[in-house]
Design a protein that fits this description.
alpha/beta; Purple Acid Phosphatase, chain A, domain 2; 6-stranded mixed beta sheet; elongated; binds manganese (II) ion
Length: 386
């Protein structure tokens, strides 16, 4: 069996007010192309299909168009709900889609009632069983614990419950089929963001890798947006998200996982890059340096720090004109912290408001206000006094 594992599409999520629908459309086309080119038997989507419980119609259209593209190719699909998906909404079309070999699983179910999805390969010669673990809300376990246990045991109880659910799901899988799991959950020891920081159980509601089933050919996870392999008894990967969804994901290469699996063997995996999303970048420099950079940032969304010796009115606006994809502009200039006279020398209560304003402005911006600004302050102050 050949499968394509993807997750965390978050279709519809804007970035600082900018729509990214064209990027989601392009990325989903790219994934469908990969599925068709590689002749996979099924696409597995491990949760967070939509970004919001009430996704915009454009987002729904992109997802259903993606699924429609698989139909004539004979590619099946299994989709589970993540914490961002509304389980009832995602599940609304489930029985209709089931007949099209599109298996939507929005809530946890026992094996015989949808918890295990049986898939035949395109040629009908092979069979896979996919155990599904949609996101289990922390509070569902937490509420029950809250009445009896101290809070630190909640994490433990959550992981124990998930371990029990998983064991129950996979216990009767036959050794003659390709056995897989897709789940939307956190695994301790995984990396998140762009650094080397790892998640630890006790800080998160999740599982230790050893609590995942050990008898499967492959486990495809969703929830963490950074693609990575998890050191677990069965071969386990987070596919990561499709595009860099926010600046916490900058510099992450996005991808999907092609899984090649045979019964009773560890699956082999190949990670295929997905490059449709725009890059997210932090850039820094003087206005002059940024001007030179303008040609080489392509269409990346930018977080800009502009360096200046002293405050320049309208600097952020100038940067945004220069770099239209700057979503965030921070002005950075040296501040003279020691400039403020001590309280003893001149208690604030003895100073004129205009003088207080001048000191405040100087401390905040590293330079005194212009005469024009001082005059404006005085005018406003006088008006307010009337
Ligand atoms: Mn997610």
């Amino acid at each position: 069996m050949r499968l394509l594992h993807t997750a965390d599409w978050h279709v519809g999520k804007p970035l600082r007010g900018r729509s990214r629908m064209d990027e989601y459309a392009a990325a989903l086309r790219e994934v469908a192309d990969i599925a068709v080119d590689r002749r996979v038997d099924a696409v597995l989507v491990a949760g967070d299909i939509f970004d919001s419980p009430a996704p915009p119609p454009e987002a729904e259209k992109l997802v259903y168009d993606f699924l429609a593209r698989l139909l004539p190719e004979g590619i099946a699909a299994v989709l589970i709900a993540g914490n961002h998906d509304h389980p009832k909404k995602l599940g609304a079309l489930a029985s209709l889609l089931e007949g099209l070999r599109i298996h939507v699983r929005a809530e946890v179910r026992p094996p015989a009632q949808g918890g295990i999805v049986s898939l035949a390969s395109r040629d009908g010669a092979e069979e896979a069983r996919v155990a599904v673990l949609p996101f289990v809300p922390e509070r569902k376990v937490g509420d029950a614990c809250a009445v009896m246990d101290p809070e630190h045991t909640w994490y433990e109880t959550y992981s124990e419950r998930l371990e029990q659910i998983l064991a129950e799901l996979v216990k009767d899988l036959p050794p003659s089929t390709v056995n897989l799991l897709i789940g939307h959950l956190l695994v301790a020891g995984s990396l998140f963001g762009t650094g080397e920081r790892k998640l630890h159980l006790g800080d998160i509601y999740g599982l230790n890798p050893q609590q995942l089933p050990s008898s499967l050919q492959y486990i495809g996870l969703g929830h963490l947006h950074r693609p990575q392999e998890v050191m677990a008894p069965s071969r386990t990967l987070y596919s990561g998200s499709l595009i860099e969804l926010d600046f916490g994901e900058k510099e992450q290469e996005k991808r999907v996982v092609i899984v090649e699996a045979k019964p009773a063997q560890v699956a082999s995996v190949e990670e295929v890059p997905v490059t449709s999303g725009r890059r997210l970048r932090d850039v820094e420099g003087t206005l002059e340096e940024l001007r030179h950079m303008a040609g080489e940032v392509d269409d990346a969304f930018l977080r800009v720090t502009v360096k200046t010796e002293a405050p320049v009115p309208g600097l952020a606006e100038q940067v945004k004109e220069l770099l239209p994809n700057a979503l965030d502009v921070t002005v950075d200039h040296p501040r003279d912290e020691g400039a403020e006279p001590s309280e003893e020398e001149s208690p604030r209560t003895q100073l004129e408001p205009a003088e207080l304003f001048t000191r405040y402005y100087s401390r905040k911006n590293g330079a005194p206000p212009s005469d024009e600004l001082k005059k404006l302050f005085q005018t406003l102050y006088d008006e307010a006094q009337r």
